[in-house]
């Protein structure tokens, strides 16, 4: 499986298989593999390391938990394309909540409709 997933990443990304014996049988991590923390994670004229990515996702997850978001809740994400989008998305997933990305081009009525579903 590692070799199949390695095809999804560029040559500059190293993948390391996580030992399944160390994980709880009933829990699945949000990532199957640990990415080398110093490689760039994304680039939108700026870069962040995987460590920074994970830190930002954890901070956002803790913020949501502090505000009462719990497993199964829906969290809408309304952002333009930006570097912060991915850690926010994964921060939502880390809480066990459901991420609901919305198109930033939606009108107010379209956003209201999506939020009321």
SSE layout and pairing:
Layout: H1 2-6, E1 15-17, E2 33-35, E3 40-43, E4 47-49, H2 50-66, E5 74-78, H3 85-94, E6 98-102, H4 108-116
Parallel strand pairs: 5-6
Antiparallel strand pairs: 1-2, 3-4
Give an overview of the whole structure.
It is a single chain. The protein has 117 residues and is an alpha+beta fold. The chain contains four helices and six strands, in the order αββββαβαβα. The strands form three sheets. The protein has a two-stranded antiparallel ribbon. Helix 2 packs across helix 3. The chain is flat and about 35 Å long. About 21% of the residues have low confidence.
Quick overview:
This protein has helices at residues 2-6, 50-66, 85-94, 108-116, and strands at 15-17, 33-35, 40-43, 47-49, 74-78, 98-102. The protein is of the alpha+beta class and 117 residues long. The N and C termini lie far apart (37 Å).
């Amino acid at each position: 499986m590692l070799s199949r997933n390695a095809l999804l990443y560029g040559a500059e990304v190293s993948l390391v298989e996580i030992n399944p014996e160390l994980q709880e049988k009933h829990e699945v991590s949000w990532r199957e593999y640990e990415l080398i923390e110093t490689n760039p994670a994304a680039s939108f004229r700026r870069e962040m390391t995987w460590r920074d990515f994970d830190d930002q996702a954890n901070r956002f997850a803790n913020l949501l938990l502090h505000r009462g978001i719990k497993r199964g809740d829906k969290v809408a994400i309304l952002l333009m394309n930006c570097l912060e989008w991915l850690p926010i998305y994964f921060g939502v997933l880390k809480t066990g909540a459901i991420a609901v990305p919305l198109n930033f081009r939606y009108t107010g009525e379209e956003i209201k409709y999506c939020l009321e579903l």
